[in-house]
Write a structure and sequence with these properties.
The protein has 315 residues and is of the alpha/beta class. The chain folds into two domains: 179 residues, FAD/NAD(P)-binding domain (3-Layer(bba) Sandwich); 119 residues, FAD/NAD(P)-binding domain, CATH 3.50.50. 23% of the residues lie in helices and 28% in strands. The strands form four sheets. Strands 1, 2, 3, 4, 5, 6 and 17 form a seven-stranded mixed β-sheet that branches. The chain has a five-stranded parallel β-sheet with strand order 8-15-9-10-11, covered by helices on one side. The chain has a three-stranded antiparallel β-sheet with strand order 12-13-14, with no helix packed on it. Helix 1 packs parallel to helix 2, helix 1 packs parallel to helix 6 and helix 4 runs parallel beside helix 5. The protein is elongated.
Length: 315
Amino acid sequence: MDSEFDLIVIGGGAAGLSAAQYGARANLKTLLVEELAVGGQALLVDALENYPGVMGPVSGYDLSEVMRRQAEAFGASSLTATVSELRKDGGFFVVDTSEGGLRAKTVVLATGAKHRHAGVPGEEEFAGRGVSYCATCDGPFFKGRRIMVVGGGDAACDESAFLAKLSDKIVVVHRRDRFRAQASLAERTLSNPNIEVRFNTTIKEIRGTKKVESVLLDKAEGGGAHEEAFDAVFVFVGSIPQSALATGAKKDEAGYILTDDRMATSQPGLFAAGDVRACSFRQLVTAASDGAIAAHSASQYIDEMKGEAYAPSSP
């Protein structure tokens, strides 16, 4: 394989696949680097029904496979490897991988973010079978059902409000004696008639056979653990952006990469797309949009490096 490219996309989720496709369509020599299987967080989605233009439900795996084939059809190549370092050397980026060193004029970081887990028995076993980390993605499957939300921050309050539109049986459990969310979000959660809030309560185990059926809870004041029936458990205890490679770019306090509306970071030639960048809404469709914009901006950047005039492209 060649070692020099116009565009290297690091991360094979929706943002990375979209960036690879649009980079190749712009006639950039494009390489997608992913350490595991392409698809990212989408691989955890068993039945996706809210991706525009795709009549669901479709599995996240199947959708990712279509996106991969599209990128390759336009000429993008791919490499399965772990990226250990990203640095600038003159006018090029050097990308050190487990398969050797690479060079690129531009880079799109689409490394995503990992959901923090509650870390209790049953959580991994029932992921995608009642355990979820995205209310917008999976909430509609549990309309009218008994749903538990774990967490006490902004995300937990936001997502419980969304779920409360689908069911009047929402129980939010938080291990502390008050929410750590913004006051306005906390107040709306506490005053929502479809939401029951239980402070000083921890989740000990998620139980079931083929899907979630019950949860073991423990109240801090004592009384021992008790089991309650639930159909779903939504965990919102934070995310960890995978932004360690972006040593030359500015980040927010949580570690998410800061970009402008062109997906450009503070480091020239480096772009970020999807869950790894600071944004207010994270979905497959927004990640794909980010990737397309990032690749288009990378193409513009290369044209500017060559001193060529920019002509807007058609979709």
